[in-house]
Amino acid sequence: MTDVKLTDVAKVYGGKVEVLKNIDLDIKTGELVVFVGPSGCGKSTLLRMIAGLEKISDGTLEIDGQVVNDIPPSQRGIAMVFQSYALYPHMTVRDNMAFALQIAKMPKAEIDAAVNAAAEKLQLTEYLDRLPKALSGGQRQRVAIGRAVVRSPKVYLFDEPLSNLDAALRVATRIEIAQLKEQMPDTTMIYVTHDQVEAMTLATRIVVLANKGIAQVGSPLDLYERPNSEFVAQFIGSPAMNLVAGEIVGTGAVTTLKVHDGGGTITSAVPSLPEDMGAQVNVGFRPEDAIQSDGENYAYEGEIEIQESLGEVTLIYFKRAAPEHEPVIAKLPGIHPEQRGKSMRLTADPEKVHIFRNGVSLLYR
Ligand SMILES: Nc1ncnc2c1ncn2[C@@H]1O[C@H](COP(=O)(O)OP(=O)(O)OP(=O)(O)O)[C@@H](O)[C@H]1O
């Protein structure tokens, strides 16, 4: 059991700047929970409160069923991995990894065994006698993770551990973290990132933070397929979900919508009620769910402003009547002939169309 439970947790800096409030979160043993959210929403603050590096202003934090609000970091059974690897430059990889255990006066044979086992898990065995300067960024970050692993913590906390790495190393190190997690199914990991792909691929659950609180918690696919709000819909997924203004013109088990901006009609599998008739809503569909329509049945029609061929897909950006709105984007499979300046019609699978009223998904009422 290494559950981490937050109940009504709040953070106020300096007695007046409220950064987080009413945070309720129950993280179960073996989960890898990822915190995401816009810059400054409090992701690092929340992680640092769990670590004990930041005081909790209100509410309770339990680890393993024990309230730890006033327990110092070293006694919480956690280990934290930072973006800056913070290795000791004059010490070998082996000594960097052994250091905390030596301080804790662990017998040498046990230290050696712990370091060797961690090095094996992280494929660092051949680098144990090198200094950090003779390692790549990805290897250095693995040593930093190894320093956490040797301590056999109950909970691992990662604060943007891959953001100093270049794209290729990020991918490789991300996969190593996923493999490490698989080898240690009973540890609990909490991870802060800006990176969508990291969040989607590593997380058992994603916590989206916004406006001082939790906007939504769910598995990556939950958040992608069933966002509860326009905010989450546009935050998860890249390019972001398209939103166009519309009106409900048919209710029942499926909803028919008239799209104002771009002109067609679209059906959503989200049911709506008779009293919704005439309601002004935003219709959402993801770029990858857009389907090119040749016929009369279409949801959106627009002039192509930009076209980007990525090989396996083509991104089509449509000009918006209201230039302050983000462009509507279609991600169409394959290569398409250049059609800039021409008009194109789109529709979308009804199962994948979202409806938002006052920013809230109609799925969630
Ligand atoms: N020591 C502090 N005193 C006052 N305000 C602080 C302090 N530390 C952080 N903040 C504020 O708290 C808010 C949350 O900061 P935090 O670093 O947790 O956000 P974040 O979501 O991790 O941001 P980013 O994604 O940019 O790293 C920010 O508005 C920040 O300015």
Architecture blueprint of SSEs:
Blueprint (H helix, E strand, L loop, with lengths): L3 E10 L3 E11 L4 E5 L6 H9 L6 E6 L2 E2 L10 E4 L11 H11 L4 H14 L15 H13 L5 E5 L7 H17 L4 E5 L3 H7 L2 E6 L2 E6 L1 H6 L4 H6 L6 E9 L4 E5 L5 E4 L11 E6 L4 E4 L6 E10 L3 E6 L9 E6 L9 E6 L5 E4 L2 E2 L4
Parallel strand pairs: 3-8, 3-9, 6-7, 7-8
Antiparallel strand pairs: 1-2, 1-4, 4-5, 9-10, 11-12, 11-14, 12-13, 14-20, 15-19, 16-17, 16-19, 17-18, 20-21
What features would you describe in this structure?
This is Maltose/maltodextrin import ATP-binding protein MalK. It is an enzyme of class 3 (hydrolase). The strands form 4 sheets. Strands 6-7-8-3-9-10 form a 6-stranded mixed sheet, sandwiched between helices. It is 23% helix and 33% strand. The protein folds into 2 domains: 4-234, P-loop containing nucleotide triphosphate hydrolases (Rossmann fold, 3-Layer(aba) Sandwich), CATH 3.40.50.300; 235-364, OB fold (Dihydrolipoamide Acetyltransferase, E2P). Helix 3 (108-121) crosses helix 4 and helix 4 runs parallel beside helix 5 (167-183). The chain has helices at 43-51, 93-103, 108-121, 137-149, 167-183, 196-202, 220-225, 230-235, and strands at 4-13, 17-27, 32-36, 58-63, 66-67, 78-81, 155-159, 188-192, 205-210, 213-218, 242-250, 255-259, 265-268, 280-285, 290-293, 300-309, 313-318, 328-333, 343-348, 354-357, 360-361. The two termini are 35 Å apart. The protein has 8 helices and 21 strands. The chain is α+β, with helices and mostly antiparallel strands. The radius of gyration is 24 Å and the shape is elongated. The structure holds adenosine-5'-triphosphate. Adenosine-5'-triphosphate binds next to strand 2 and helix 1.
